[in-house]
Amino acid sequence: MKITVAHSPDSDDAFMFYGLASGAVQVPGIEVDQVLADIETLNRAAFDGKYEVTAASFNAYTHLVDKYALLPHGASMGDKYGPILVAKKPIKATEGSGALKGLRIGIPGKLTSAYLTLQMFDPDFQPEIMSFDLIQQAVADGLVDAGLLIHEGQLTYEAEGLKKVVDLGEWWFEKTGGLPLPLGGNLIRRDLGPDLMKKVSKMLHDSIAHALNNREAAVEYAQTYGRGLDRAATDKFVGMYVNQLTLDYGTRGRAGLERFFAEAYQKKLIPQPIKVEFV
Predict the structure, then answer these.
(1) Residues 150, 229: one domain?
(2) More exposed terminus of the chain, fewer Cβ within 10 Å: N or C?
(3) Is 151 annotated as catalytic?
(4) 35-68 in b/e burial notation, b at 16+ Cβ within 10 A?
C-alpha cells in the first residue's frame, strides 16, 4: 500500500524523515511517497484529507480532529523559543498591552500556530498573510510594520538589522511556568483504521529515532533544505525542533499542548475544546 507523507521543505522536517528518505527504515507492504509543501498549504490540504499522513499546525488540527488523529511523535515544540515577532524599529509590547493595535503584521497563514499564539499574546493587530519566506524581507522593505518569523528566520533576522519585539516561545515558557510551546505535529487519517495507523506510526517513530542516532548524516541531508543556513546553523536549528519532545511528547509536551488548546479555547480563538489523544 502506498502512503503519502506530507511535510514542510524545511531542515527540521527533512531531518525527521531522514530514516525514510535514506531507505534505512522500511516496512514490508508499505510504500512511502513524500510530498513537500509549506505548512499553510499542508494545513489547507488536510481539510480535504488529501494525504494519509501530514505535518500540520496545531491550530489547524483544532478543525481536523474528526478526520485526522494525532501521532505521538513528530511534534515541533519551542522550548523557551519559538516564532519571533520582529520590526525595523523597537516596539515595546507585553501581553494584552495593545501595543500592536493597528499594526500591519506579516503572518505565515491564519491556520498556523504562530498566528494563534500571537493572537493569544495580543489580538489587536492587522494580519497580512504572506509566504513565510517573504516576511523577513517585507519587514526590511517597510511593506509591513512587523513580521512573525518561523523556521530559519528565527536565527537570521538580526543579521538583517531587524529588532525582536517578542519571542513567543520565551513568552509562553514564562507564562506557563516552563512549558514548551506546541507549534506543529504529525497527523494520520483516521480512515486508515487502527492497525495500519499503528504500523505507520511506528514507522515514522523509527525514522526520527534513526536520524537522532545518525545525526551527522541526517544533518547533512537536512542542510539541503536549509535555505542558505550553513552546517552549524542547520545543526542548531534542527536541534531546536527535533529532540526528545519530537520522539515522544512526554509529560511536559502533553501538558504544553493541553494548556495551548485550553488557552486558545478560553480566548475563543479555536472552534471547540480539544482533548489530547494519540494513536
Answers:
(1) no
(2) N
(3) yes
(4) bbbbbbebbebbeeeebbbbbbbbbbbbbbeeeb
Asked if 93 and 70 sit in the same domain, the reply is no
User: Residue 271 burial by CB count (10 A; 0-12/13-18/19+): exposed, middle or buried?
Assistant: exposed
CATH at residue 124: 3.40.190.10
Question: Which pLDDT tens digit goes with each residue over 15-52?
Answer: 999 999 999 999 999 999 999 999 999 999 999 999 99
Query: Does 165 lie in the same domain as 30?
Result: no
Per the structure, the count of domains in the chain is: 2
Secondary structure of residue 214 in the 3-state scheme = coil
pTM above 0.85, yes or no: yes
pLDDT at residue 70, as a whole number: 98
Instruction: Name residue, grid cell 494548556.
Output: 259
Pairing mode, if any, of strands 146-149 and 31-36? unpaired
- Which listed residue (7, 63, 73, 151) is catalytic? 151
**Positions in the chain whose pLDDT score sits under 50:** none
What's the domain range around 97?
Answer: 84-175
**Beta carbons within 8 Å of 95's beta carbon, 6+ residues apart:** 121, 122, 171, 175
